[in-house]
Design a protein that fits this description.
The protein is α+β, with helices and mostly antiparallel strands. The chain is 30% helix and 29% strand. It has a 4-stranded mixed β-sheet, covered by helices on one side. Strand 1, helix 1 and strand 2 form a beta-alpha-beta unit. The radius of gyration is 13 Å and the shape is globular.
Length: 79
């Protein structure tokens, strides 16, 4: 796949002791805000298919999903 200057990839890793405290939501919200400020068109990230909390957060923010590997989905947000 060709890389584009108007697309950015994201990755978030929250350690087990800190999960469930809203950190993932805060980080993803800030990433989306920065991507918009930078006038990007698309933000993408890969999420474990069984990570329902992250998938739910992405879904709430408007990300769309497609399967890329057996247990991995790609979350894509059009900005």
């Amino acid at each position: 796949k060709t890389r584009s200057r108007d697309t950015a990839a994201f990755a978030i890793l929250i350690g087990d002791p800190y999960q469930g405290r809203g950190l993932g939501s805060e980080v993803l919200t800030r990433m989306v805000d920065i991507a918009r400020a930078e006038k990007l068109r698309t933000l993408v990230g890969r999420v474990a298919a069984d990570n329902q909390r992250m998938r739910g957060l992405c879904r709430e923010m408007g990300f769309q999903f497609c399967e890329v590997e057996g247990n991995i989905v790609q979350a894509t947000l059009s900005l």
